[in-house]
Write a structure and sequence with these properties.
heterodimer, A: mainly alpha, Rna Polymerase Sigma Factor, Chain: A, Arc Repressor Mutant, subunit A, B: alpha+beta, Heat Shock Protein 90, Actin, Chain A, domain 4, 2 domains, 3-stranded antiparallel sheet
Chain lengths: ~140, ~290
């Protein structure tokens, strides 16, 4: 939960606020959880929405189109890195940062990610594909 | 899953994820500040002890008793949205404030015939329970967190045949919640009315739910910043659930308005919401005496 909140708001104080608000919302709406097995995507969606709300409220939204020029044509499977994955993830822009956190850290499926972020399946697949490429480059580059 | 994905998932799993102390503290405060569920309520003897202890922290406590100040009571009269036949005054105002907790609960009373007694009694019971809950939360949260509760009221409808009083409750403890309670009186019969009392055919509820869902989807279509929990695979599709106890009121056009509390049908940023169902669409499902009330 903290990883997702931080990936969106990008600072400790706001991430704490997002978690606090999310816990309260989840507590208030626990009766609406239809299936216990859906708890993780359910709570993560609350965290995601709360974080997005906070950004909107503070007018600090990062345009989805804003992507750093990190892509490259070279693709290698072996990861030789001097960096922690977390540092690499923090260099990504949105929506790639959120997708990466949900896919690699939370081990959610593309369908679940789509449900949490509100994007459609095709968009999430494309975002994940681009995020992979960026991560490859960042991890190889080692800053 | 390709090798790259497997490697990254392994790295993610092995990477220490330390939640900062400040965030941990914030989470603990939120958990401690969560309002208790009804089942966990403390007995009244605890309440009275807490209330007595809390008294030294009270900066302002004011009880406006009936008829104690006619001028003040008149000043607090609320002008109804429709008509002005019934006089509603604030008879008590529970106030509390310290550095971390606030309460401002206005208790209205309909100063009219005996037929309003049931509404007055219900309002009294509800506001009393909110005052008690505030003091219970005050005890359980203490100085570890913040809490507040504000209760306000409004006369929504007052015609020759119908009276509706709305109580609005805004609570905050960690986060905030807003909800309403509507009280209705059929002035012709002198009976208090709930939504179920209007209904002759249970298909009424399906029609109302369907119309509301349609309006939600239309609103989402028009504005992609709006979000309602409708046709949602994760959040389910039964948030729009209307039964005989659900809040409602009639607007000036005589159409049915269904209000929803914060978090009831949408994320918190959407706040409270309400949807109007055309009277003609539900007329046939109403009892005859209510079909042409407005």
């Amino acid at each position: 939960m903290y990883g997702l909140a931080f990936s969106i708001v990008k600072n400790e104080a706001d991430a704490g606020e997002v978690l606090s608000e999310s816990i309260y919302r989840a507590y208030k709406n626990l009766d609406t959880l239809k299936n216990e097995k859906s708890f993780r995507p359910w709570i993560l969606r609350i965290v995601h929405n709360t974080a997005v709300e906070l950004i909107r409220k503070n007018s600090r939204i990062v345009p989805v189109e804003e992507v750093e020029a990190l892509t490259t044509d070279s693709v290698e499977n072996e990861i030789t890195t001097k960096l922690a994955l977390r540092q690499a993830v923090e260099r990504l822009t949105q929506p790639y940062r959120t997708v990466v956190v949900l896919f690699y850290y939370e081990s959610l499926s593309i369908l679940q990610i789509a449900q949490i972020t509100g994007a459609n399946l095709a968009a999430v697949k494309k975002q994940l594909s681009r995020a992979r490429q960026m991560l490859r480059d960042i991890l190889k580059e080692g800053f | 899953m390709n090798e790259f994905d497997r490697d990254l998932k392994r790295m993610a799993a092995e990477e220490p994820m330390e939640v900062p102390a400040s965030v941990k503290k914030r989470i603990e405060e939120t958990l401690e500040g969560l309002p208790e569920k009804e089942a966990g309520r403390r007995p009244l003897w605890v309440l009275s002890r807490v209330a007595a202890a809390a008294a030294c922290l009270i900066l302002v406590t004011l009880f406006l008793l009936p008829n104690m100040s006619v001028a003040y009571a008149q000043a607090l009269e609320r002008v109804p949205v429709i008509g002005d036949l019934v006089r509603v005054v604030t008879i008590k105002n529970y106030l509390y404030a310290d550095e971390k907790h606030e309460m401002d609960i206005e208790v209205p009373k309909v100063e009219q015939e005996e037929m309003f007694d049931p509404i007055n009694a219900e309002v009294e019971e509800m506001t009393q329970s909110l005052v008690q809950r505030f003091y219970q939360d005050l005890e359980s949260i203490g100085r570890r967190g913040h809490s507040s509760i504000y209760v306000d009221y409004e006369t929504v409808t007052d015609t020759g045949s119908w009276f509706t009083l709305k109580l609005q409750v805004h609570e905050a403890a960690g986060s905030s919640n807003t909800y309403f309670k509507y009280y209705h009186l059929n002035k012709i019969t002198g009976e208090t009315i709930r939504l179920g009392d209007l209904v002759a055919d249970d298909a009424f509820y399906e029609v109302v739910e369907q119309r509301i869902k349609e309006q939600m989807l239309e609103a989402e279509e028009r504005d992609d910043t709006l979000e309602y929990w409708v046709e949602d695979e994760v959040f389910g599709d039964d948030h729009v659930s209307i039964d005989g106890e659900h809040n409602f009121y009639w607007n000036e056009e005589g159409d049915l308005v269904i209000p929803f509390d914060k978090y009831e049908v949408a994320p918190g940023y959407m706040g409270t919401s309400e949807f109007t169902v055309d009277r003609e669409e539900i007329r046939d499902y109403l009892k005859v005496e209510f079909q042409d009330l407005f």
